[in-house]
Specification:
The chain is of the alpha/beta class and 474 residues long. The protein is 32% helix and 22% strand. Helix 1 crosses helix 16 and helix 9 (192-198) crosses helix 10. The protein is globular.
């Protein structure tokens, strides 16, 4: 028998033993050991199931290292800022990955000596040609994880930030140990206008930023600052802009940046100003219950048409009848969506989305999203309809069965909380709705699994296949 067959046979035996040991109330529902698990069901609605507080559970368990990407054009003041991070009394132990452009490393020699660990890669651009070196450095740092609690990655002045940001979406091993906090871009106030006209990298760096440090403001006429800041907002209307001299900024703001803090970003974006340089910021803030199936189809159409031009996207969505937020972020064609925290009882359930990219069609994107809002308004929606328009309920037995399979096949402790939810899937060729499984272990970030089927369609084989491929659609 093959090793795969042996492993599967053992998984079946373990699951069978677990089923045999379950309370009679559950096992009695299985007719003669049959795999037909849906004939008799105690039915419960989604609203009757106690809503898990994903934010609290994630915050209690997320021990991943927060990562801030530091970028900016040549001479903007990145190294000066990094010196401040490495020497200021901010109570953090910061590891730094310094990127060098060229065969001889120089930047790390310009950094003031400190107790922080610095990793240098000197054989090319981290964001373009040597992303594998970044992966090796990230894994290398894990061997010294006890020595640091925050990571900064400095890119070269000639770097497009997209590949380094994509690293934290693509590699599941990286996602399990690191979480992207955000992107900080340092801008040279004296030279940025000329750089924008001659170097496309400078536009990319600003467009990707969660925070823009408008540095060296003491070198320009103060009367020119409003126009310069207006120019930056044309490139990225969602980023926070801080004016600085000599990269002097509150280090806490840099280290505690949250890339999904959309409440502030969406509200600060001003649609009244014009957009130049081909880079658009499309921000949408609106109330309304979303039809999950329409959201899935809309994202597929959006990515097919604008995916290569979307530099960054992020959002918080209010799916119809879902007690929890659905949060997403992405870079170009890469998309990550997951359940978020529970909506508070007195909280206005607003949808907040931000898209930054080149030559985006604001009217088309906004119109497409607005079409995803259900015709019913919240309380007027049919009570039996779930976020994806399904009128049948998911039984508690079905959820219990999937939890037991996950615990026994993937060998999780029996007391580990397991949350099972249907979420939109935006990848072409996959079903529009998939099942997300989140396992919360003490002292660890949530373990996330995806099954390309709706909850009522999940089988033993689906769960077993998670051993080899936990995220088949990502």
């Amino acid at each position: 028998m093959s090793s795969a067959g042996s492993r599967r046979g053992e998984a079946v035996r373990v699951a069978s033993r677990a089923m045999a040991m379950r309370p009679a109330r559950i096992s009695s529902l299985i007719p003669n050991g049959s795999s037909s698990l849906t004939r008799r069901r105690p039915v419960v609605t989604f609203r009757k199931q106690p809503p898990p507080d994903f934010k609290r559970m994630a915050d209690d368990n997320d021990q991943r290292v927060p990562v801030t990407v530091l970028t900016g054009f040549l001479g903007a003041g990145k190294t000066t800022l990094l010196n401040r991070v490495l020497t200021a009394e901010h109570g953090r132990r910061v590891a730094v990955i310094v990127n060098e452009f060229g065969a001889v490393g120089i930047d790390h020699h310009l950094l003031i000596s400190s107790d922080q660990e610095i990793v240098e890669m000197s054989n090319g651009c981290i964001c373009c040609t040597v992303r594998s070196d970044l992966l090796r450095s990230l894994f290398q740092l894990l061997e010294h994880k006890a020595k640091f609690d925050t990571l900064m990655i400095e890119t070269t002045g000639l770097a497009d930030p997209a590949p380094v940001v994509q690293t934290f979406f693509v590699d599941e091993r990286i996602r399990s140990h690191y979480r992207l906090n955000g992107v900080v871009t340092v801008v040279d106030a004296k030279h940025i206008i000329r750089q924008l006209s001659s170097a496309p990298e400078s536009k990319e760096q600003i467009a990707f930023a969660d925070m823009v440090l408008l540095n060296k403001i003491d070198l320009i006429n103060p009367e020119d600052l409003p126009e310069l800041e207006f120019k930056l907002r044309n490139l990225n209307g969602a980023a926070r802009i801080c004016q600085t001299r000599n990269s002097d900024v509150d280090i806490g703001m840099v280290l505690d940046l949250r890339s999904l803090d959309l409440e502030v970003k969406a509200e600060k974006h001003d649609d009244s100003h014009g957009h130049t340089d081909g880079i658009e910021t499309v921000a949408i803030t609106t109330a309304g219950d979303l039809d999950g199936l329409k959201v899935s189809r809309w994202f597929r159409e959006l990515l097919a048409e604008f995916g290569e031009r979307v530099m960054r996207m992020k959002g918080i969505l209010n799916l119809r009848k879902d007690p929890d937020q659905f949060v997403f972020q992405g870079v170009h064609l890469l998309f990550e969506g997951r359940p978020g925290r529970a909506w508070a009882a007195d909280e206005e359930r607003l949808n907040r989305l931000v898209f930054i990219g080149r030559e985006l069609d604001r009217e088309k994107i906004t119109h497409g999203f607005m079409n995803c809002i259900t015709t019913e308004n919240g309380a007027g929606s049919a009570e039996e309809i779930d976020p994806f328009g399904r009128k049948q309920d998911v039984s508690s037995f079905t959820l219990d069965q999937i939890r037991y399979w996950v615990q026994t096949i993937l060998t999780f402790p029996p007391d580990a909380p397991i949350v099972i939810k249907e979420v939109p899937c935006v990848k072409a060729g996959c079903p529009p709705v998939e099942t997300a499984i989140l396992v919360f272990l003490k002292g660890e970030p949530p373990r996330t699994f995806k099954i390309l089927a709706r909850i009522n369609e999940v089988t033993f084989d689906h769960v077993y296949n998670l051993i080899e491929n936990p995220l088949p659609c990502c």
